[in-house]
């Protein structure tokens, strides 16, 4: 009987993000691990591999598809209210013990993560996104960097149809991957999980590539928002949060920083759930560092005005939120405060058209007569 790994090894095409090395090795350039891979072996992510001196990358399937409000990704300064058609493949270059998407991200490492990938084409995904009324196409759920060739194929089709595009990523990128992605991606969300390299090594990575990605994505003109999942005893000390916020401020005071609440998940079941007070403390550290847009997430109605967007010029509440729901929207068509005309950084639609959904739902391909079949 075929294993998941066998099935996925048939759903590939030759990768673009790689370079040939001596003795039949190839170096993968898709993520910050920069794996040198000998013939017949897989990289750290287990989904990119060397066969006969060529690098192969995932292609032609999705591990998950869902319609999300864009506020869930989260983007607070990009097309508020838009429906974000979200797709992912399988696998990850990190192995975070608290991953909230572990069923897709750890599918190749953890036998408990049972996944049934579905055969897909960029055309079919975009057609469904349009039928759902989506405005943004998002690669998420697994780490999109490791499946960038497929994401670019989907995004090319999405752009043709007038959709915006986004990555929800751990930020463990390479300069080569970002150059490859730049023409096709509008929005880039990065998790900055800690400001301590020892913590990143526990998760299977290093902090340096992530910091470089944040700086580089901003300089390259992606719209960047940063998320830090606040975990008691892991990354919530005042000292660590201060250094993290000061780093973001050194890149730009205009980068939105979301501090979000941890709840017990996957293998991390020891730390207590994050409290509203912890989020408020982290947010005040972000503001003290000079960041102009700091948000507290995952606690609807419990963090006061930290869910809302305020004008940094006059303080007016421009967008009010309750969780993913937008209850008030006052921005001008030019993306400015209507009271003092301060320009608010972000990617804004000319007008707010309401929300098709303020909670996630699954598109039903079967009803539409365009079924995605299970890979086997
Ligand atoms: S995506 Fe990253 S982990 Fe996977 S093979 Fe390439 S460099 Fe290695």
In short, what is this structure?
By secondary structure, the chain is of the alpha/beta class. Helix content is 24%, strand content 21%. The chain has an eight-stranded mixed β-sheet with strand order 8-9-11-12-13-14-15-16. A three-stranded antiparallel β-sheet has the order 1-6-5.
Detailed description of the structure:
The chain is of the alpha/beta class. Helix content is 24%, strand content 21%. The protein contains nine helices and 19 strands. The strands form five sheets. Strands 8-9-11-12-13-14-15-16 form an eight-stranded mixed β-sheet. Strands 1-6-5 form a three-stranded antiparallel β-sheet. The protein has a three-stranded antiparallel β-sheet with strand order 2-3-4, with no helix packed on it. Helix 3 packs across helix 4 and helix 8 crosses helix 9. The longest helix is centred in the middle third of the chain and has 14 residues. The model has no long low-confidence stretch (mean pLDDT 93). The site of iron/sulfur cluster has 12 residues, from loops.
């Amino acid at each position: 009987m075929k294993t998941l790994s066998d099935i996925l090894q048939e759903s590939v095409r030759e990768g673009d993000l790689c370079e040939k090395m001596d003795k039949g090795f190839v170096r993968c350039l898709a993520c910050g691990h920069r794996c040198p891979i000998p013939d017949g072996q897989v990289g750290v992510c287990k989904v990119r591999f060397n066969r006969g001196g060529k690098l192969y990358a995932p292609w032609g399937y999705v591990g998950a598809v869902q319609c999300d409000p864009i506020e869930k990704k989260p983007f607070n300064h990009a097309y508020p209210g838009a429906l974000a058609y979200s797709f992912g493949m399988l696998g990850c270059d990190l192995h975070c013990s608290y991953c909230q998407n572990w069923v897709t991200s750890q599918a190749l490492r953890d036998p408990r993560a049972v996944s049934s990938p579905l055969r897909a084409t960029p055309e079919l995904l975009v057609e469904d996104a349009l039928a759902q009324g989506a405005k943004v196409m998002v690669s998420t759920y697994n780490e999109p960097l490791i499946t960038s060739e497929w994401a670019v194929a989907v995004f090319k089709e999405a752009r043709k149809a007038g959709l915006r595009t986004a990555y929800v990523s751990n930020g463990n990128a390479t300069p080569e991957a970002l150059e490859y992605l730049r023409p096709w991606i509008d929005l880039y969300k990065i998790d900055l999980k800690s400001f301590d390299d020892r913590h990143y090594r526990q998760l299977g990575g290093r902090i340096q590539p992530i910091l470089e990605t944040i700086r580089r994505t901003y300089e390259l003109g992606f719209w960047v928002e940063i998320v830090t999942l606040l975990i008691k005893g892991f990354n919530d000390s005042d000292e660590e949060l201060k250094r993290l916020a000061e780093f973001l401020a050194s890149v730009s005071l205009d980068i939105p920083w979301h501090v979000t609440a941890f709840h017990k998940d996957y293998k991390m079941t020891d730390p207590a759930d994050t409290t509203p007070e912890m989020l408020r403390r982290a947010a005040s550290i972000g503001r003290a560092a000079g960041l102009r847009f700091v948000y507290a997430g995952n606690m609807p109605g419990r963090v006061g005005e930290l869910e809302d967007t305020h004008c940094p010029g006059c303080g007016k509440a421009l967008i009010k939120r309750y969780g993913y729901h937008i209850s008030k929207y006052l921005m001008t068509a030019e993306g400015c405060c209507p009271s003092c005309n301060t320009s608010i950084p972000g990617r804004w639609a000319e007008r707010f058209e309401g929300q098709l959904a303020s909670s996630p739902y699954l598109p039903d391909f079967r009803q539409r007569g365009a079924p995605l079949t299970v890979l086997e």
